[in-house]
Amino acid sequence: NICASEADPKIITAESGQDVTLTCRAPNNTVTVLNWTRSDLKPEYVLLYQHGPSDSTHQHPSFKNRVDLQDTQMKGGDVSLILKNVTINDTGTYMCRVFMNETRSWMNISFVYLVVPPGE
């Protein structure tokens, strides 16, 4: 039973300029539609994936060309996100969710709170 809650996010601290992996593993192995979002941004999409990387028109501009799936084949349900060259502006709570074909509904898989402290 995988249930993620915003009240208990995984916390990751990174230094400015680093590449960070935000981990997320879906409970079933056949993920075709997923998204990573950050609710304090408009648009909130960090990454959209529908049977392949989706167009970036809905993606928040600050993430353009800075995000990738760790495993584009998503083996074993691994839908972890790599965020490149992080800055203090990337601090926030990221949510990973996948579309469950069986139930035709979205399922929140993980919440990750990323902290990028100000540089020295």
TrEMBL record:
<dbReference type="GO" id="GO:0005102">
    <property type="term" value="F:signaling receptor binding"/>
</dbReference>
<dbReference type="Pfam" id="PF07686">
    <property type="entry name" value="V-set"/>
</dbReference>
<dbReference type="InterPro" id="IPR007110">
    <property type="entry name" value="Ig-like_dom"/>
</dbReference>
<dbReference type="InterPro" id="IPR013783">
    <property type="entry name" value="Ig-like_fold"/>
</dbReference>
<dbReference type="InterPro" id="IPR036179">
    <property type="entry name" value="Ig-like_dom_sf"/>
</dbReference>
<dbReference type="GO" id="GO:1903037">
    <property type="term" value="P:regulation of leukocyte cell-cell adhesion"/>
</dbReference>
<keyword id="KW-0325">Glycoprotein</keyword>
<dbReference type="GO" id="GO:0050863">
    <property type="term" value="P:regulation of T cell activation"/>
</dbReference>
<dbReference type="InterPro" id="IPR013106">
    <property type="entry name" value="Ig_V-set"/>
</dbReference>
<keyword id="KW-0472">Membrane</keyword>
<dbReference type="InterPro" id="IPR003599">
    <property type="entry name" value="Ig_sub"/>
</dbReference>
<dbReference type="GO" id="GO:0001817">
    <property type="term" value="P:regulation of cytokine production"/>
</dbReference>
<dbReference type="InterPro" id="IPR003598">
    <property type="entry name" value="Ig_sub2"/>
</dbReference>
<feature type="domain" description="Ig-like">
    <location>
        <begin position="1"/>
        <end position="110"/>
    </location>
</feature>
<keyword id="KW-1015">Disulfide bond</keyword>
<dbReference type="GO" id="GO:0009897">
    <property type="term" value="C:external side of plasma membrane"/>
</dbReference>
<protein>
    <recommendedName>
        <fullName>Ig-like domain-containing protein</fullName>
    </recommendedName>
</protein>
<dbReference type="GO" id="GO:0050852">
    <property type="term" value="P:T cell receptor signaling pathway"/>
</dbReference>
<keyword id="KW-0393">Immunoglobulin domain</keyword>
<dbReference type="InterPro" id="IPR050504">
    <property type="entry name" value="IgSF_BTN/MOG"/>
</dbReference>
<keyword id="KW-0732">Signal</keyword>
